[in-house]
Amino acid sequence: MSETYSYLGPSGTFTEAALAQVPEAEGKDWRSVNNVGEALDDVVSGRSVAAMIAIENSIEGGVTATLDALANIPGLRIIGEYLVRVQFVLVARPGTTLDEVRVVNAHPVAYAQTRKWLDANVPTHGHIPSTSNVAAALALFENDLADAAIAPPQIVQHHALEVLAENIADNANAVTRFVLVSKSAAVPAPTGADKTSIIAELPEDRAGALLELLEQFSTRGVNLSLLQSRPIGDALGRYRFVIDADGHITDERVADALLGVRRFSPHILFLGSYPRADKAPVQYTARYDDGVFLEARQWLAALIAGEPEA
Ligand SMILES: O=C(O)C(=O)C[C@]1(C(=O)O)C=C[C@@H](O)C=C1
């Protein structure tokens, strides 16, 4: 059986563009799904070897459906990170003019990224959420509930739609970050430009608990690139934290920080260590180098063995 990769479809989504960056997926079966849960379920059930899912947008922030699914579905690993520049156009059935637009189909994350433009140019619009950017546009052919859709610019190359407005994103440089997720597997070897993702809960509701969580990283010289709280869901005011740390789990400072979180947090989930999309080498101060940790451990072993101190 050929290997299958799941992605949010239909064909033409930014998620598909992210999957196109994965050399291992080239020439394999690509399965278009309707939501993140379905994509991850494909991985859990073994229907697909991996799924590409959006995790963060530079304007809208964390994709909550993804962060919550990763927290709640056991046995998954992030094995890669990919960036896609996102741009949007407003499209409609041929013949529609902008002043006729009352209702807009849009994926919620795309909608959030184009709100300023919509508020300025279609101030009284209503919004129908879609499962993806391409699905938003294709729904215009299936029913007339909406007059226009927010879609990727390439949509008009494949479908008979008219562009009513270009570059409608609130930030022309918006980027969405995607991750490739597989079943739990051994972590790939470090590249020197890696990221480690975890989700951790705080021990109890007390002053300084979050600070203590963050100290696990700061005292080992580990920089964080993402800290996002998500409600655990069982009671008001209870949160878990999604954390991206610079470095690889086999880096001594990262491993030591994770051990610290493990001792402190009632629930820690390791999501993976994987190469950063921007390939930027991890920066850290020399005193947190692997060699310094190893030397300290050797010193301890020597003390225990009764060797005289150098
Ligand atoms: O991949 C697509 O095109 C999508 O519709 C999904 C998605 C997302 O899930 O965040 C991806 C990127 C954009 O920022 C908006 C929507």
TrEMBL record:
<keyword id="KW-0028">Amino-acid biosynthesis</keyword>
<dbReference type="InterPro" id="IPR045865">
    <property type="entry name" value="ACT-like_dom_sf"/>
</dbReference>
<dbReference type="GO" id="GO:0004664">
    <property type="term" value="F:prephenate dehydratase activity"/>
</dbReference>
<comment type="pathway">
    <text>Amino-acid biosynthesis; L-phenylalanine biosynthesis; phenylpyruvate from prephenate: step 1/1.</text>
</comment>
<protein>
    <recommendedName>
        <fullName>Prephenate dehydratase</fullName>
        <ecNumber>4.2.1.51</ecNumber>
    </recommendedName>
</protein>
<feature type="domain" description="ACT">
    <location>
        <begin position="198"/>
        <end position="276"/>
    </location>
</feature>
<keyword id="KW-0456">Lyase</keyword>
<dbReference type="Pfam" id="PF01842">
    <property type="entry name" value="ACT"/>
</dbReference>
<dbReference type="InterPro" id="IPR001086">
    <property type="entry name" value="Preph_deHydtase"/>
</dbReference>
<feature type="domain" description="Prephenate dehydratase">
    <location>
        <begin position="4"/>
        <end position="183"/>
    </location>
</feature>
<dbReference type="InterPro" id="IPR008242">
    <property type="entry name" value="Chor_mutase/pphenate_deHydtase"/>
</dbReference>
<keyword id="KW-0057">Aromatic amino acid biosynthesis</keyword>
<dbReference type="Pfam" id="PF00800">
    <property type="entry name" value="PDT"/>
</dbReference>
<dbReference type="InterPro" id="IPR002912">
    <property type="entry name" value="ACT_dom"/>
</dbReference>
<keyword id="KW-0584">Phenylalanine biosynthesis</keyword>
